[in-house]
Write a structure and sequence with these properties.
This protein has 316 residues and is an alpha/beta fold. It folds into two domains: 127 residues, ATPase, nucleotide binding domain (Nucleotidyltransferase, domain 5, 2-Layer Sandwich), CATH 3.30.420.40; 159 residues, Nucleotidyltransferase, domain 5. The radius of gyration is 20 Å and the shape is globular. The two termini are 27 Å apart.
C-alpha cells in the first residue's frame, strides 16, 4: 500500500523535492535547477521528479510562487516564474498521473509548516514572515491559515512603504525595503566584497562589528520591526516566526527584537497599550515549503472527504 507523499517546492533558482510520510517525517530530499523558460519545460522537469517515485506515493504536494486558487490548483502571476500565470497545475498533474495533487503558495506553505510541526504549533493566532528575495508571509488565526477572498492574504511584499516615496509620488513596496537579498548585496557592495551574494561573509562582518555593515544591518532590522508592528496593529497575534535563509543567523532575530523594543519605547502610547508579540526563529528554513505543501494537501483532502486523521489531529 502506498503510504508516502511527494512534496515539490518550485523556486526561481531551484526546484526542491522530498518524500515525506503521513506524519511529516522527511525521508528523502534533493533539488534540481529550475532551468525552465516555459510551461512545457516546467512540466518536463516535474516529470523527471515524479516518474521515479510514482509507485511509492499516494499524493503530490506542490508549493509555487504567485497567487494560488487552492480549490482548482491554478496559479496566477507566478512571481519569479511568470510563465506559470494561468497554469492549472493540479488538473494537469492529476490527469497525467491519476493521483491526488494539491497546490499552495510558497509563503503560505512556510506558515503551514510552522503551524503543523514548527514554532507556531502551540499558539492560536500567529504569523510567519519569510525574508528572502522579497518578503513572503502567512497569517494564522484560530489555528487556521487565512487565504483571503482572493487568495492574497499575507502577501506582505506588496504592502506600500510610504516612508520611501519618490518625487513622482510613487511608493516602493515592502518586498524591496525588507528584502534580505538586497540587504546582503548592499553590504557586500559597500564593503567591496568580490561576491555580492555572499551572505555568510556579510554576516561575518556584522558579527565582527564592521561599522558600515552594522549600520546597514540595523537599519534593515528596523524596517522589519516596523513591518511587524504595522501587522500587529491589524491582526494582533501572539507570535511571529521569522523564516528564510537569513533567519539561521541568530543575530538577526536578536536585532529585530531589539529594534521592535526601541519602537515601542519611542512611542508612549504604544508602550502603554500595545501587547508585544513574541518574535522567534522559524523552525523550518530551506525545507519549510515541503512540509507546508504536504500539510495543505492533507488538510484539504481530509476536509473534502470528511475524514479525521487522529494521528495528525488535522481537524482541530
Amino acid at each position: 500500500m502506498k503510504k508516502d507523499y511527494l512534496a515539490i517546492d518550485v523556486g526561481g533558482t531551484n526546484i526542491k523535492y522530498g518524500i515525506l510520510d503521513h506524519s511529516g517525517i522527511l525521508l528523502f530530499n534533493d533539488k534540481v535547477p529550475s532551468n525552465c523558460h516555459c510551461l512545457d519545460e516546467f512540466y518536463q522537469i516535474l516529470d523527471k521528479i515524479i516518474q521515479p517515485n510514482l509507485k511509492r506515493i499516494r499524493g503530490i504536494a506542490v508549493s509555487v510562487p504567485g497567487k494560488v486558487d487552492v480549490r482548482t490548483g491554478t496559479v496566477y502571476f507566478g512571481g519569479a516564474l511568470p510563465f506559470l500565470n494561468g497554469a492549472t497545475i493540479k488538473k494537469t498533474l492529476e490527469d497525467k498521473y491519476h493521483i491526488l495533487v494539491g497546490v499552495e503558495n510558497n509563503g503560505k506553505s512556510a506558515a503551514l509548516a510552522e503551524l503543523w510541526l514548527g514554532s507556531l504549533n502551540d499558539v492560536s493566532n500567529s504569523a510567519v514572515i519569510v525574508l528572502g528575495t522579497m518578503v513572503g508571509g502567512g497569517i494564522i488565526l484560530d489555528h487556521h491559515l487565512i487565504r483571503g477572498s482572493h487568495f492574497q492574504a499575507g502577501e506582505i511584499s506588496f504592502v506600500l512603504d510610504h516612508f520611501r516615496s519618490s518625487g513622482s509620488g510613487q511608493n516602493t513596496i515592502i518586498g524591496n525595503t525588507c528584502s534580505a537579498v538586497k540587504m546582503i548585496e548592499q553590504i557586500a557592495t559597500t564593503l567591496d566584497l568580490p561576491d555580492k551574494k555572499d551572505g555568510k561573509r556579510v554576516f561575518e562582518e556584522i558579527v565582527h562589528g564592521n561599522p558600515q555593515a552594522v549600520e546597514i544591518f540595523e537599519n534593515y532590522c528596523y524596517q522589519v520591526a516596523q513591518l511587524i508592528m504595522d501587522l500587529q496593529a491589524v491582526i494582533d497575534v501572539e507570535k511571529v516566526a521569522i523564516g528564510g535563509g537569513v533567519s539561521a543567523e541568530m543575530i538577526l532575530i536578536r536585532e529585530i527584537n531589539r529594534q521592535y523594543d526601541k519602537l515601542m519605547l519611542a512611542n508612549p502610547v504604544l508602550s502603554k497599550t500595545f501587547t508585544r508579540p513574541k518574535l522567534v526563529q522559524a523552525k523550518f528554513r530551506n525545507s519549510a515549503n515541503l512540509y507546508g505543501a504536504l500539510y495543505a494537501l492533507l488538510t484539504q483532502y481530509d476536509k473534502k472527504h470528511n475524514q479525521v486523521d487522529e494521528e495528525l489531529n488535522l481537524i482541530r
